[in-house]
Amino acid sequence: MTTTSSSRLATLLPAVPMAIAALSPAPAPARDAAEPAHRTATPASGHYAAVNGLQIYYEIHGAPNGRTPPVVLLHGGGSSIDTSFARLLPRLAKGRQVVAFDQQGHGRTADVDRPFSFEQSADDAAALLRSLKMDRADFLGFSNGGTIALHIAVRHPQLVRKLVVVSGMYKRDGVPAEFWQAMRHASVENMPADLRDSYARIAPHPDQLRSFHDKSARRMLDFKDLRADDMRAIAAPALIINGDRDVVRTEHALEMSRLLPHAELAVFPATDHAAMPDRLAEQAALIETFLEAR
Asked: Domain segments of the chain: what residues?
């Protein structure tokens, strides 16, 4: 990688959740103490469910409102409920039921002997909902979670009422070419400090950090495009959210909004990938309006 492309990638991707972020070639800078604390952990007050060979950690917040189904939160790669949704979750739970869970090997869900994949994560989410006797839900996914939400809509369409895809992509050219160059050189030493610290604090086996990192990077390197026909077949109304400085190209977000039959697009100004969790909390009214609409 040239110095120029490395510098550009570092500008695009500072301290972004690991697997979608293509860990920057240099260690991420420390966060300023004045930044909003969207990385603060939630209390470990959840439950575990036996799902597809996993013991999945999940939390249920809020109460059914009688109008809309639960909204399921799908966190970013290398992340957890805590690091992706600590600020947004309480806001959403004021008006509806919210289900959030840690994916295989992430957060408080222990890893098992199988690779990470978007397809498997989609199937795990569907199986968790069925184990909870929930036959329909809205899905909100950030970063890798947005891609997982699309896979759920393709693989388990009967479960999906509405989709919110935040900084997600459906094919490899949704991000700049240097993203993939950086992914091939990703290392645990360059993992964003907040994600590394969160893993050490809440993971069932903190000593598995290197394996966790490498499996997360491999999931991205093995990324397989969804077909345009698969996207066109998604009947659920969708809200596509992107930052104008996001690692996911704005043009790609626009392309998704045009492929999906019933989609809206919102582009947050002056927002990169790392800032998106805070901006989501600020713009929660936009998401609530979309989910409440008939």
From this structure: 40-178+225-292
Percentage of residues in the chain having pLDDT higher than 90: 81
For residue 94 the two structure tokens come to 């004021």
Q: Please tell me the pTM assigned to this model.
A: 0.87
Q: Which CATH architecture has domain 40-178+225-292?
A: 3-Layer(aba) Sandwich (3.40)
Number of H helices, E strands in the chain: 13, 8
How is residue 98 annotated by DSSP?
E
Mean of the pLDDT values across residues 211-227? 96
C-alpha to C-alpha distance for 254 and 265, rounded to whole angstroms = 7
pLDDT of amino acid 88: 96
Q: Up-side HSE of residue 287: CA atoms within 13 Å toward CB? A: 29
- For residue 190, name the pLDDT band (cuts at 50, 70, 90): confident
Residue 265 binned pLDDT confidence (cut-offs 50, 70, 90): very high
- pLDDT over 70 percentage in the chain: 85
Euclidean distance between CA atoms 166 and 67, whole angstroms: 24
**Closest by CA position to 287, among listed 40, 145, 91:** 91
- Per DSSP, helices labelled H in the chain are 3-12, 18-21, 81-85, 88-93, 118-131, 144-155, 177-183, 193-202, 209-221, 228-232, 250-259, 276-282, 284-292
Helix axes 209-221, 193-202, angle to 10 degrees: 130
Phi, psi of 115 (to 5 degrees): -65, 160
pLDDT at res. 21: 41
